[in-house]
Automatic annotation (TrEMBL):
This is diguanylate cyclase. Residues 82-135 form the PAC domain. It is an enzyme of class 2 (transferase). Transmembrane segments: none annotated. SMART domains: GGDEF, PAC, PAS. Residues 290-424 form the GGDEF domain. GO terms for molecular function: diguanylate cyclase activity. Its cofactor is Mg(2+).
């Protein structure tokens, strides 16, 4: 014989561990099941007589108002069901978090009155874990989150901690409601890289690690995202991770990088950086063709300047010349002090004749410059320069520089304060 609907329903409710309640809105009658009472450590007999006050007296006073408001808004037609979590006092003196859900049944008892029927579930453990997670998230120096990407590319945060406010200027509720907001504040220059790295991590299931900038009202913050992806059987990828502020670390990194490529005295690039840029330009030329030229400048009789006017005056001569070269070259040119009184200018997309023209202009500008020593004596300074262009028969950067040096040497030998040019770059 098939089980009755009532038996089946009871078995289902027993399985879920839910208490049930029925509340007649017109008569005020209340019907509770045994589980409703045992969830709070009581039997129904102990709670008798059962009325609305039975719930009221056990509910946390601070939760009564919100629960009644939730009921009122459901009865006003807002939401498909009544739903609310409130605390209730267990017989053992502990508060339990109860998740209550209910619906209105007009004809439930066939007597024309309205019955609200629902369930109670004890969600204390979930609430406690959630509270612990929130406390943990608060004490962490970054954002923790769970990010989910569907196979069709749709994405959302199933959890994100409140630190989003500090780093992204976005409330965590907003990030959950509209996850795109979290990408809208990524620096435009970094956005593509961030998206590509997420795509790569989803494909390879390798850890996602990405440093990028977040731009909130003109304030830039460097952050680092680190998270582990996992793919479920539906192809959905979920990352659990953390985003931290790395501003201090990044500033230090950038400072160190700056120091490692800069000449301290003049603020120009140093020899190491110039060699790196020359190698880059050579590789680019080999791959895509094009042209670039190099000017090597050396101050004439600089030793005599030091000897006559002192080392500090020599230093300020170097600084003045550095400024002069920077003013008279393009932004795309790279200028470095590559030795004591030697400078190199790398001029991308510049033919030999144009580079020679620039070298001559620099030579004349320096010769016209009036210098004053620490003792107030006036003097002038000249330079010699070698100019060379990268061509098809240039074998390496080393060869290019060697040809440039030979031109410079020719300029010195021919009397200084002049520019020598080499078209071919075969050092022999
Ligand atoms: N003030 C100052 N002098 C430097 C610096 N680096 C190198 N020097 C000096 O630059 C001088 C270079 O001398 P030399 O290599 O003989 O060249 P020069 O006197 O310019 O002679 P030519 O190049 O042949 O015209 C040396 O006296 C170095 O001590 C620096 O940072 N500051």
């Amino acid at each position: 014989m098939p089980l009755s609907a009532e038996t089946r329903l009871k078995a289902i409710l027993d399985g879920t561990g839910a208490g049930t309640w029925e509340y007649n809105l017109d008569t005020g009658d209340i019907i509770l099941n045994d589980r409703w009472a045992s969830m709070l450590g009581y039997s129904l007999e102990e709670l008798a007589p059962i009325s609305f006050q039975t719930w009221e007296s056990l509910c946390h006073p601070k939760d009564l108002g919100p629960a009644n408001e939730a009921l009122a808004s459901y009865l006003n037609g807002q939401g498909p069901q009544f739903e609310c979590v409130f605390r209730m006092m267990h017989k053992d003196g502990e508060w339990r978090h109860i998740h209550s859900r209910g619906m209105l049944l007009n004809n439930g008892k066939n007597d024309g009155t309205r019955w609200l029927m629902g369930t109670h579930l004890d969600v204390t453990e979930e609430k406690t874990s959630q509270h612990q997670l929130e406390q943990l998230a608060e004490s962490l120096p970054g954002i923790i989150y769970t990010f989910v990407m569907e196979p069709d590319g749709q994405f959302h945060f199933s959890y994100i901690s409140r630190k989003t406010e500090d780093l992204y200027g976005i409330h965590s509720d907003q990030a959950i409601a509209d996850p795109q907001k979290m990408f809208d504040v990524v620096h435009p220059d970094d956005l593509q890289r961030v998206q590509d790295s997420i795509g790569l991590s989803a494909e390879s299931l390798c850890e996602w690690v990405c440093d990028y900038r977040v731009l909130v009202e003109d304030r830039i913050t460097w952050v680092r995202g680190v998270s582990r992806p996992e793919r479920d059987t539906d192809g959905r990828v979920t990352w659990h991770g953390v985003i931290t502020n790395i501003n201090d670390q990044k500033r230090l990194e950038l400072e160190l990088e700056h120091l490692s490529i800069t000449d301290e005295l003049t603020g120009l690039f140093n020899r190491r950086y110039m060699l790196h840029k020359l190698e880059e330009a050579a590789a680019e030329n080999e791959r895509y063709g094009g042209i670039f030229s190099v000017i090597s400048l050396d101050i004439d009789f600089f030793k005599a300047i030091n000897d006559s006017w002192g080392h500090p005056t020599g230093d300020s001569v170097l600084q003045t010349i550095a400024k002069l070269i920077q003013q008279r070259t393009r932004k795309s040119d790279i200028v470095a002090r590559t030795g004591g009184e030697e400078f190199i200018v790398l001029m991308p997309n510049t033919a030999l004749a144009d580079a020679r023209h620039v070298a001559d202009a620099l030579r004349m500008a320096l010769a016209a410059e009036d210098f004053v020593s620490d003792e107030g004596e006036r003097f002038t300074v000249t330079l010699s320069a070698g100019v060379v262009s990268w061509s098809d028969d240039t074998a390496s950067v080393r060869d290019l520089l060697s040809v440039c040096d030979r031109s410079l040497y020719e300029a010195k030998r021919a009397g200084r304060n002049r520019v020598a040019v080499r078209g071919g770059t075969n050092p022999n």
